[in-house]
Amino acid sequence: MEKYQSVLRFIRYEVNEIYFKNNANFKLNKDGTPIDLKIIPTVDIEDKNMNITLQIVIFEGAEQTNKPFEMKVNITGYFMAEGCNPETLKANAIAILYPYVRAIVSTYTANANITPLILPTINVNKLIEDQEEN
Fold first, then answer.
1. Of 17, 23, 64, 122, which is the most buried if we count CB atoms within 10 A?
2. How far apart are the first and last CA of the chain?
3. Which residues of 12-28 are buried (b: 16+ CB within 10 A; e: fewer)?
């Protein structure tokens, strides 16, 4: 197993914040409701340690835009990079952390007694590229 071990070690993650507000006035339209999703990664690197905070905003302004709910999830993942620059591994770290956000969102919405929302998979490299352009 050791020969397959990555230089990036995932230590743990913490949920910093979950916000959920149901929109009781939501009216389903005939075209459905496309997912309105913002993903805001923040990377903090110190020596060989890297902390990634993912802030996810789903259906922002739900009441004003006729969306079923508004939700924000903020989690931080703690990583360590052995023998390389952690900056080169931030896409890998985000890719490791994002499925935890997906699980939180689907579980939370299911337990809120609404149609469970399963977030789409993402292209992490494109996410980082877009963030660096802004």
1. 23
2. 40
3. ebeeeeeebebbeebee
Cα-based distances in Å from 36 to 47, 71, 104:
36, 11, 17
Consecutive 10-residue averages of pLDDT for the chain (134 residues)? 83 98 90 88 94 97 94 97 86 96 97 93 90 78
The answer to whether 97 touches 13, Cβ cutoff 8 Å, is: yes
Predicted TM-score (pTM) of the model is 0.90
For tokens 């050791």, what's the residue? Answer: 2
Residue 9, CB-side half-sphere exposure with 13 Å CA sphere: 8
Radius of gyration of the CA atoms of the chain, in A = 17
| Alpha helices, DSSP H, located in 21-123 | 62-65, 90-111
